[in-house]
Design a protein that fits this description.
- This protein has 510 residues and is of the alpha+beta class.
- Among the domains are: 120 residues, Uridine Diphospho-n-acetylenolpyruvylglucosamine Reductase, domain 2 (2-Layer Sandwich); 89 residues, GMP Synthetase, Chain A, domain 3 (2-Layer Sandwich).
- Helices cover 34% and strands 20% of the residues.
- The protein contains 19 helices and 17 strands.
- It is globular.
- The two termini are 30 Å apart.
- Bound molecules: flavin-adenine dinucleotide.
- The site of flavin-adenine dinucleotide (FAD) has 37 residues, from strand 2, helix 6 and strand 9.
Length: 510
């Protein structure tokens, strides 16, 4: 197997996103930090030798394979990779090509097994922890990548779960179909990873979250196989499919899913508005979600994020912004709407009635062209010794202002926020933190901030995660959110499906 992604930064090794010098200068000024030179590129570290415990199963043990599976893509993962602190790299990597091979591995492996899709987890979900076992192997699922069956009449597609976003969409496009699931990590994440983490894509207003798209699935557990029937709805007791969606590799390996798919929309369009404040924008998007139909993409940035995005896009030169300044108004909060298969007339009317100043389709079209480049910017900022990390949550509309204020209060540095998923009863809040992180202090600085932010989330009516999942990083807050008995019940189920406790130790509730 060849490794397609960079071992220490995001995505394609040949791709970079250098911040414009103006943007960088502004950032350093804002953080009160003297500009520093770029760090040199790290050399691949030599990994400690380990003997895998795999009972003759085919596997890879050379450094390139182990390095490519040594962690996910959180800030802490990237810092550790850059520093070469890789004592926790897996002992071996397995690449099954069929569900039967997955079953064989789960039966015979005498070590911890970490299911791995694209490895884009930002919550420590693929950290190769051994738990109480003698060793740890990562189970790379990307060879399970076929579109198996399309039922055009029912708009269902059965697909293997190691398939990456672009391959899935191009297979479906041959049938005139789309899944409509576009997380920002789309290019490097897999269907199985999306399902295992309860992921949300950027067009969730039209297509829903991944759990809305999964009609049925097939999972291989150490105790055997579970197949849930793909029916439109069922009253045959609690939904077993829902227990596997979001199980983060701790209960079984999801090898196939039957997905609800859609004809590719005939048209797409964007519109942008500037609101005098974040609160005014929130009123508008709440009405859009409650009165419907909600736009496919809704992205409302707070004032700080709006300013930062404009600086990055050099928007000072745009006509809309010049006009606004001429009228004596500040840019305020930017709302970007994306419509699929309709003109979004009702949403546009609401935006104007709630005080939005229309700035046309340009910002949305630009975002659409560049959205998968943005993760490369984080690596570039890390090169200059800055801490860049995100965290996200959701709450009811009436509680959004309280939660927003509480989380901002728990963080420090430059804090940007946007709403990117709306529901009739509430919305998600997505925070980006940029702060100074001198070499050697990165982990301590972020861990302290993150703990304060997570405490603020759970004590102010938010969920510990709207779409990134629990992984290792949010585990400590699970009981506060779910309650002890609920977590105990989930652990009991793990005992049935994975009696030796080999699957993904230290994640979620395991
Ligand atoms: C730059 C960036 C942008 C992101 N944007 C978004 C976003 O917009 N929306 C969003 O929801 N998330 C986002 N994420 C988070 C991440 O991409 C998602 O959690 C994604 O669903 C993970 O998919 P993956 O294939 O990379 O899974 P991995 O990272 O490989 O695994 C994630 C978890 O799922 C388990 N797992 C993986 N495959 C399987 C399987 N087949 N069966 C059982 N368990 C499995 C793993 O053990 C692990 O616990 C982003 C991450 C980054 C780095």
């Amino acid at each position: 197997m060849t490794q397609r992604v960079n071992w220490w930064r995001w995505g394609d090794p040949a791709h970079r996103f250098e911040p414009p010098p103006d943007f960088l200068t502004c950032l350093f000024e804002r953080l009160g930090v003297a500009p520093r030179p770029k760090a040199p590129e790290p050399a691949p570290p030599r990994l400690p030798d380990r003997t895998p415990v795999l009972d003759g199963l085919p596997h890879e043990t050379d450094d390139a394979h182990r390095l490519a599976h040594a962690g996910g893509r959180s800030y802490l993962d990237l810092v550790r990779l850059r520093r070469g602190s890789l004592e926790h790299a897996p002992d071996a990597v397995l690449y099954p090509a069929t569900a039967e091979e997955v079953g064989e591995i789960l039966r015979r492996a005498d070590c911890a097994v970490v299911p791995f899709g694209g490895g884009t987890s930002v919550v420590g979900g693929v950290a190769p922890a051994r738990g109480s076992h003698r060793g740890v192997a990562t189970l790379d699922l990307t060879r399970l990548s076929r579109l198996l069956e399309v039922d055009r009449e029912s708009l269902l597609a059965r697909v293997e779960c190691g398939i990456m976003g672009p391959a899935l969409e191009s297979e479906l496009a041959r049938h005139g179909l789309t899944l409509g699931h576009f997380p920002q990590s789309f290019e490097y994440s897999t269907l199985g990873g999306w399902i295992a983490t309860r992921s949300a894509g950027q067009a969730s207003g039209r297509y829903g979250r991944i759990e809305d798209m999964v009609a049925g699935l097939r999972a291989i557990t150490p105790a055997g196989e579970i197949v849930t029937r793909a029916v439109p709805a069922s009253a045959s007791g609690p939904e077993v499919r829902e227990l596997l969606v979001g199980s983060e590799g701790t209960l079984g390996v999801i090898v196939e899913a039957t997905l609800r798919v859609h004809p590719i929309p005939e048209s797409r369009a964007f519109a942008s508005y500037l609101f005098p404040s974040f609160e005014a924008g929130l009123r508008a998007i709440r009405r859009m979600a409650q009165e419907g139909p909600a736009p496919a993409i809704v992205r409302l940035s707070d004032v700080v994020e709006t300013e930062a995005a404009m600086k990055l896009a050099d928007a000072d030169r745009s006509f809309g912004l010049k006009l606004l300044r001429f009228l004596g108004r500040s840019p305020g909060a930017h709302l970007m709407l994306g419509f699929e298969g309709g003109d979004g007339k009702h949403a546009r009317v609401i935006a104007r009635r709630e005080g939005g100043f229309g700035v046309g389709a340009g910002p949305g079209e630009r975002w659409d062209r560049e959205r998968f480049r943005h993760p490369y910017l984080r690596d570039a900022l890390l090169d200059y010794g800055l801490l860049v990390e995100t965290l996200e949550t959701a709450t009811s509309w009436s509680n959004v202002p309280r939660l927003y204020t509480a989380v901002r209060g728990a963080l420090s540095g430059l804090i940007l926020c946007h709403v990117s998923h709306v529901y009739s009863d509430g919305a998600s809040l997505y925070f980006t933190v940029i702060a100074d992180a001198p070499r050697g202090e990165e982990e301590e600085r972020w861990t302290r901030m993150k703990e304060a932010a997570c405490d603020a989330l759970v004590s102010n009516g938010g969920t510990i995660s709207h779409h990134h999942g629990v992984g290792a990083d949010h585990r400590a807050w699970l009981v506060s959110e779910r309650g002890e008995l609920a977590v105990k019940a989930l652990r009991a189920m793990k005992g049935v499906l994975d009696p030796r406790g080999i699957l993904n130790p230290g994640k979620l509730h395991s």
